[in-house]
User: What shape does this take?
Amino acid sequence: MTNIPPSPSRRTTSPTVSSLPHSPPPSSSKRPPSPNNASIPLPKIAKPKRDNSQPSLAAIARQFSSPAKPTGFKPIHVPIRHRLPLQQLRSNLRRLHINTRRILVIHYSDRNLVSFLIHIGYETELRLQLSKFNITVRDDFDPLDPSIIRDPTLVNEPIDHKVQHARKAFLHRICVAFRRFRTPVYNAVANFFVQSGLIDLDDLALYDLAPPYKYCTGHILDHV
Assistant: This one.
């Protein structure tokens, strides 16, 4: 009896890849690091605290040295065509490479005239910078000149009365800057104006200024 080979339709086929059972995906979670491989944090070294209660020896020694720069203040008067807001005026000065942070007070002392109150140590640098742009300094201007009083009701007043009015007007212009000074700067600037005769001590007491003014009869204040 002869063996009949199976027909092609009855041949057994091997299972395909798609028919194989799916294996579970590998776990995405990483194994926790071994305690032996974990980095050990270094101990923090405490910094020694600086003792700020006592001044250093160098600071104490500087108290017995001469001032490096001259002390005092200086008004610088400069002509101007028309009045500008002080913020815009400061911006224009900065464009001329003038350090406005070293100008304590800016006010208009007279018509077409603006005044800068500076520390005397900044005078040379400021004059040099102004001269680069051909800006003249009015050294001959006197804030107490009776001619700057143009009130028609005071035309026939005596000269000494006009000087008093000029002194009060000067104080009225700078009192706005006084209110934003801290006490040491305020006392130093006010003492400069009182000793130079630009403002009167009694007139200064009439203004409600923030820091209490302490007048010093000497040339140098103990807190400057």
User: Anything to note?
Assistant: The beta strands are 73-79, 103-110, 113-119. Residues 143-224 form one domain.
